[in-house]
Structures are given as C-alpha cells and as structure tokens.
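Every protein is a chain of amino acids, and every chain bends into a shape of its own. The protein below has been through that process, and both of its lines are reproduced in full.
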Amino acid sequence: MIPAAMATALATIAGCAGLGSKHPFDIRPHMNTCEVMLVGPARIGDMRLWVPEGIATDTGFSSIYPVGSAWTRVDGCWVHRVTQAGLFGPGNFTRVATDTLECAGIRVPVDEPVEWTTTLRPTTDGVAFSIRLTNRGTRSIRKAGAAICLKFFKAPWWSDANTFVRSDGHVQSLAALGRDSGMPNGFEAYLMTGESYDNVFYRQFWGFNRHRLDLPLMVSHNTTAGRCIALEAPNAYFLHSNPQNPCTDVMLAFGDVAPETTVERNGEVRIIAGTPAKAFGHD
C-alpha cells in the first residue's frame, strides 16, 4: 500500500490555484529542457529534477534528452510541453540510424513518437509532478515509461547506506540489498514486485537487482540535517540509483498506450523531518 499522505498529495496534483507561498523549494526551470533546479534549504542543499529524462518502452526509446517549449507559470504551477520536434536532444545517446540509438556500446531501437505535458506543483513539503503522455505513432507502445531523475548536489552524506527502499516486507538500505547486476559502474535498478522490463539498455547497462521492491518509494536520509528526501510515485516499473553521480530515479509506468491515446501519471519529491521509518509510515 502507498502511505496515505502520499496518496492524498498525488490525488490533488491538478489543483494548482490557491497555493500559499510556504514551500521548501525554489523551482528554477532550465531554459527549454526538461530539467528544473530545486533550490532547497541550506541544510538540505540543491537538487536537479529531470521530468522526464526520456520516454522509455519495453523495447526501446520514444525520446531521450528531450527539448521542448519554454516553461510557463499557470495558476501557481510550472508547465512544460514537448512535441515530436524535440524528442531527441544532445547527450550520451547517439542516433546511429533513423531507427537506432547507441549508448555505451548498446544499441536500442527508436520506438513510436510521443508528445507530453509536464506540470510541477509546489507543495508544503516539496514538489508534485504530473506527466500527460500521448502516443502519436501508428502502433501501440508497450510499457511506456517516463524516466524521472533526482540528482543531489554537494551531498557528501548521500550513500547506499543512507538510501532506503522497502523490499521483502522490510525497509532496507541499498547497501543491504547490494549491487549485483549491470555494468561494473555502480548503476543499479530495482524492479517492483510483479514487474518486468525488457528494454535492452536497462537490462545490460543499469542491470536489475535480484531483490524486488514492495513500494515505489526511495528515501535518502541526511542524518546531519535530520531530514529525508523522498522520491515517490504510485505507478512505477522500477526505481534506480547511481552513487557515482548521486541520484534517485523512478520509471513512471504508463502501461501500454494505444495510438492517439493519452495517459497521465504522477509523482512527488518530499522533504520529511525524521527518519526513513517515518517516511515509510512506520512511526
């Protein structure tokens, strides 16, 4: 089950009007990319949120490093639009053929074209995000997913030992779960219980840990500040992290999306006072 506070917050993502000014992040969009800076309290530090870094599928990518419209303010929210013209931007992936991408020696098919609108809403304890994804292709997209990345800046406290998930009925650190798959670079993904994802890049580069997760929630604990930073989403295929470039990520799960069909998924970044146990609703 998803913690009640999370479910309540995510149910109101569309309600941007009437917001007060008290929220922990100063949201600063980066030009017309899908990146925003979350300028947080000094004891927490700044973070960068990609919403999303790309649109993955069970077989390939419909978008990676997208570029869209300028961010606009609408009723207290930030709104960003990506069309087919901006699906593939500069980054680590190279388009080696019309229908093929390559990164780290792994070739991945280009999937059906998509468009989407992202909405960010400040909350009293963080920021909620919503993505409305439309399949503009002629075939159904299998297991469409939006790769959400939360990167920590100036965070020497961040480590596998201080980052927590719930697996096998228990809240456990990533250190306890270990890193046992993927390339030997520290990347690791953790499938939700009952989920699978056949995208070759995630299977070979990130790798899927042998443990499965009970909740789509990853919590990083800043012990000095006595605060947790939670990344959560009610619909996810898997979560992943990278200690070399400290970040916690979630792959939003849109399911199979038929041509000219629109599906919306939500998530949230929250600052929580206290321990990881509190973030997982255990105290």
Observations:
- The first strand starts at residue 26 and ends at 29.
- Confidence is low (pLDDT under 50) at residues 1-14.
- The chain is about 10% helix and 45% strand.
- The first helix runs from residue 4 to 11.
